[in-house]
Amino acid sequence: MTLDVRLLGPLEVRVDGVQAAIPRGNATTILALLLDDAGRAVPVSGLVAAVYGDDLPLDPETQVQNTVGVLRRQLGAARARIETVGRAYRFRIGPDELDTLRCKAKEAQARQLRREGRDEEAAAVLREALDEWRGPALADLPGRAAGAIGRRLDEYRLALLEQRIDADIDTGRAAGAVEELRQIIAAHDTRQRLTALLMRALHASGRTAEALEAFAALKDRLADALGADPDRELVALHTAILRDQPAADVPAEPPAATAVPAMLPRATPRFTGRETEIRALDRFLMDAGAEAGLAAVTGMGGIGKTALAVRWAHRVAHRFPDGQLYFNLRGFDPAAPGASPEDVLGEALAALGAPAVPAGLDERAGLYRTILAQRRVLVLLDNARDAAHVRPLLLTAPGSFTIVTSRDRLVGLDMGEGAEVVHLGPMPEAESEALLARRIGPERADAHRDAVGRIAAACGRLPLALTLTGSWAAADPRLALDALADRLEGAANVLSVLVSTDAASDPRTVFDCSYQLLDERDATAFRLFGLHPGPDLTPAAMASLMGAPPAEARAALEALAEINLVEALPEGRYSIHDLLRAYAAECFEDEVLEPERRAAALRMLEHYLHTAHRADRLLAPGRSGPEPGPAAPGVRVEPVPDAAAAAAWFDAEHRVLHGLLRTEAGFQADLRVWQLGRVLAERAVDRAGGHELLEAQTLALAAAERRGQALEQLICLGYLAIGHAAQGDEGPARDCAERAGALAARVGGPWAAAFAAYLRAGLDPGGDAALTAAREASAGFRDAGDRHWECRAVELAGRLAAAAGLLAEARGSFAALRSAAARRGDPLGAAAADTGFGLVAHREGRYRDALDHYRRAVEGFTAAGAPGRAGRVRELAGDTRQAMGDRAAARTEWRLAEQRSEASGARVEAARVRAKLHALQDDR
C-alpha cells in the first residue's frame, strides 16, 4: 500500500494512487491537525479545542471520536495509519509520504550543503522543496484551525524562499534575484529579512544607491505601520554597505547556533483538573498560527500556575521542533533577587549554542531574536514579577510561542503586547476532590467521599494545600480521613495544620514571597484582611479599617489585586482566599501592637454599625431606636443612596455583620455590638430569619449583660422570645418573655411595660387576653411617644381582632396604621396595613379585594427588603385562593411561602404551610 498526502495546496490524500474522498468540515480539520503533527500523538482535548473552540457541542470528545471513525473508513487500506494512543490520536506516516516532511528533509539537506560550501547544490535542493507547493496551503479548508496551519505553512514557504535566494546571491546570481525580491516585498513590505536580501543583491550587483534607498523605504514603512525601527542586523548591513564593504563581508545570516534546547522541568504525573484552562491555552496556540504567540497564566501563590504551564508545555512541546526554553524569573522570591532579563538572555543564548554572548541587555536581546528568527520555539517564563520583567524576553519569530506565569495580573502584557490571559482561581469542587482522590487513592477516597469534600473545602480548594494534605494522607494509610477533616475544620488557623518541612511546599513560605515585597501601605491593608470577618469588603470598609482616606485604601486594594493577594470582584468589592486570610491574620497578630489592633477593630465595627443604621432608616424611615452617636475618627461610612442600595448592601454584608457581633469584649465595643444587634434584629424580623435573630440576640444580650444595662437586656430578651417562637420552641420563648417582663417591672416606665405586654400578646395563642395585651401595648407605646412600636402594636391588635371576628375594630386598627405610615413615609407600615385589610376582606368574603391588598403588600415588603414578611403574605394569599376554589393557585402561593420559611429557618411557619399543602394533596 502506497500513501501520498499533500497539505501544500489543496488537501489531497492518495491511497494506492486513488484519491480518498475525505468529507469537508470537521473531518478535514482533524485530518489536517493530525498531519500537521505527523508521527506525534495529538490529545483528544487539543482536537476538541481546535475544532470547536468555545462553542462546545454535547459530549465533544465523543464527536471527535466519531469523526476519527469516519476518517478511518474513508482511508480504506490506510485506515490503520490513524492510531489510538491513550486519550490521543497519531497519524503514522513516512518522511517520503507527506509533502511537508519532504520539504523539511530537503531543507535540512540544503543546510548541510551550505555548511560544506556547496551553495549551488543547496539552491537546487531548495528549489525542489519549493516545488512541493501547489498553491496556498490548505486553502480549500474552512475554519480557524485549518487556516492557522495554512498560514504557518505558507510562512514556512517564505522562509525557504529566503534561504534559496540567499544561496543564489552567494553563487553569483544576485542580479537575477533583484526583480524577484521586489515582487515578493510588494506583498510582504515590512519583512526585514527580505529587504536585507534585496540590499545584498543590489549591493552585489553594483547598485549601492538603490540598496540604501531600499533601507530608507523600509524604515519609513516600519515607522508608519508598526511604530518600529529596523532591527540591529539590518542596521549593521546598512552600515556595511555605506562603507562599501565587499558583498562577502556583509552579514547575511544570523550567527550560527545549532543547539536544540529541551529545558522544560518535569511535569507532575498526578496533575489533575484545569481542563477549561488547558483548552483555553490550546485555543490561544491555535489562534496564534504563524504569528508569535503570547499567553499568560496569573493567580495567587499556591494556585498551581507553574504546574499548569509546565503540564501544558509538555503537551504541546512536539509542535516546537526547534526547542523549548524554561526560565524561573524568581519575581517574588524575598530570599534571592529576581533573575534579571540580561542574565536570562545570557542563559538562553548559551542554551541555543551561540558562539559568543555579548555584553548589555540590548545586544543580547537582539542576538536572541536573531538566532530564533527562523525557529519554532516554546519559551516558558515562570514567576515573572510584572510585565516589564519579561518584555525583553518575548519572542517575535513566526510560529514561536511564549507563556508567562506570574502573581501579577500582567495588565501591561494584555494591553501592550496583546497577551492572552488565563487567570487561575481555586479549583472547582469536583476537580479539587479529584486531585485529593488521586493523591489518596481512588478506593480510599470513594469510601470516604464526605470527608474528601470537607478536606477540599478546608484547604480552600488551593492546589498547594490539597497536594500537601493528600500527601500526608497517602503517607499514612491508618490516618482516618474523617479525623483529618475534623482537624482542619476545627483549627482556629488552618495554616497551623498545613505545615511542611519543605519550604517550597509550605503555604506560609509561598505567601511570604508576595507579602515581603509589599510597601507599608499595602502591607497594612493586607494584614487588616486578617481582622475582617467577611468574604469580601469595599474600599470604604478598608478605608475605615486603615483609618485612611478612601483613595488611599482603594489604591492599596488595587495594588494587592495586581499581585493576586486579593481578587477584585465586578461589584467593586475585593475578596481574599481563605488561606491567605489566615496568613493575614497571623501577620496582623504578630506585627501589629495591641492598641492599634483594638483601634482598627473599633473602627471596623463603627463603619458597619453606622452604615447599617443609615441603610435601615432608608428601608424603614419610621423605625425608632437610639441613634448610634458620632463615629470614631477615621471611620468612612459607606455611601448608600437609596432603599434599593440599602437592601443590596444588607445582602452583601450579611456574613460580615453577624461576624462582627463576636468582636472582642470591651466597654466601647460592647455598646456598639448591642447597637448593631438591635439593627440586625429588625432586619431578621423583616426577613423572617428565626435562626439569625436568635444568633444575633444571644451575642447582643451577652454584651448588654457585660454593660449591666437592664433596658438593653430587656430588648434582647424580647427579640429572643420572638425568635424562639418562630422556631416553634414554645418553652424557651415563654421563658425569655417572662424574664423580659421581670426586667420591665424593674426598669419601670411606659415603654418597658408596653414592650412586655406586646410580647405577651404575640406569644398568647389567641383570645381576649392576647387582644387586651395588644391594646395595652398600643396605649403604652403611645404614652412613651414611640410611634414605630405603637404601629406594631396596633397591627398586632388588628390581626387579633380580625381573628376574633371583631372586623370593625380590625378595620379601624389598619386604617390608623395606614395613616401613620403615610405620615412617616414608611413603606413597611403601608405594606402591613394592606396585609391587614386583606385579612378583613377575606373574612367578609371579598376575595378579589383581599388578593389586591395582598398583591400590594407583597410588592411593598419586597421593595423594602423584607422577603420574610412577603412570604407570610403569600401564605394568606394561598388561603384566599383555596377559599375561591382555585387549588392550583393556592398550591403555587403556599409553595412560595414554604420556600421562604425554610430558607429563613422559620420552622413554625414552614410546618404550618406544609400541612396545608399536604391537606390539599389529600383532598384530591
TrEMBL record:
InterPro entries: AfsR-DnrI-RedD_regulator, BTAD, P-loop_NTPase, Sig_transdc_resp-reg_C-effctor, TPR-like_helical_dom_sf, WH-like_DNA-bd_sf. Residues 98-242 form the Bacterial transcriptional activator domain. Pfam families: BTAD. It comes from Glycomyces terrestris. One of its GO terms (biological process) is regulation of DNA-templated transcription. Keywords: Transcription, Transcription regulation. GO terms for molecular function: DNA binding. The lineage of its organism: Bacteria, Bacillati, Actinomycetota, Actinomycetes, Glycomycetales. This is AfsR/SARP family transcriptional regulator. It comes from the Bacteria.
